[in-house]
Specification:
The protein has about 250 residues and is of the alpha/beta class. Helices cover about 50% and strands about 10% of the residues. It folds into two domains: about 150 residues, HAD superfamily/HAD-like (Rossmann fold); about 90 residues. The chain has twelve helices and six strands. Helix 2 crosses helix 3. The N and C termini lie close together (about 10 Å).
């Protein structure tokens, strides 16, 4: 077994304590801002119409995500607009589309999610050992560019050599492809990498299918996690340096 050289870390439920589903709490703010931007562009749309369009975009994204595929956030915006009126995305100018994208992406910065307060020191300790760190995460409706701003606000962005978000690369966990392209970016082999995440399917199963050892963030014991269990568990990221040291000695 190669010595550990790199650690990839999930965003939602790992660095950030909120689960991915919490991203939908920004819906009301998004739609209110959409109504304002569209009115400024001469398009009158009711909140009820926008609600229906948002639901339609959820179906579009759900079908896409079920295939482990992803698209940039501007395509989310276009899907909402097309559900209001199929011709609307093409009628709006670039300025209006940019304003809508900003309205769509911004709410997480206005009401930020909760962060693991032990993450920064744990990540700094790993960097001090010479390990290369990367974020490897699916996005929901908030794009990776906004999630990077959140990481920067929490003092975490500088800990990472790379950030790999599904909306930017077009593929989602648990597909081995997103793990493989991350390792290529870091120039490390699977056997020299540890992935850290909370989800038993996306993180544990995905990493293992890619030949990567995995540490799951969970309050459960490792023995209770069934046959496809992680290589180690931690209750929070504060315990990560010790868990990685233990795996490095195997």
């Amino acid at each position: 077994m190669l010595r550990i050289r790199a650690v990839t870390v999930d965003f939602w439920g790992t660095l950030i304590l909120d689960p991915p589903s919490s991203d939908d709490r920004y819906r009301r703010r998004r739609l209110a801002d959409f109504e304002t931007v569209l009115a400024g562009a001469g398009v009158r749309v009711s909140q009820a119409e926008l609600e229906r369009a948002y639901e339609a975009s959820s179906s579009f994204l759900g079908r896409l995500w079920s295939q482990n595929k992803d698209v940039p956030a501007i395509e989310h915006v276009r899907a909402i607009l097309a559900a209001v009126d199929p011709g609307l995305p093409e009628r709006l100018n670039a300025e209006a589309l940019a304003a809508l994208l900003d309205a769509y992406a911004r709410p997480a910065l206005l009401v930020p999610p909760a962060v693991d307060t032990g993450a920064r020191r744990a990540l700094e300790r790993l960097r001090e050992r010479g390990l290369v760190l990367a974020v490897l995460s699916n996005t929901m409706r908030t794009p990776g560019a906004t999630l990077c701003k959140l990481l920067d606000r929490f003092g975490l962005l500088g800990c990472f050599a790379r950030t790999i978000f599904s909306d930017e690369v077009g593929v989602r966990k648990p597909s081995p492809e997103i793990f493989a392209l991350t390792l290529r970016a870091l120039q490390v082999e699977p056997a020299a990498t540890i992935h850290v995440g909370d989800d038993p399917v996306l993180d544990v199963g995905g990493a293992q299918d890619a030949g990567i050892r995995v540490i799951q963030v969970t309050s459960a014991s490792r023995k209770s996690l069934g046959p496809q269990r992680p290589d180690a568990v931690v209750p929070s990221l504060a315990a990560l340096p010790e868990a990685i040291s233990s795996l490095d000695e195997l």
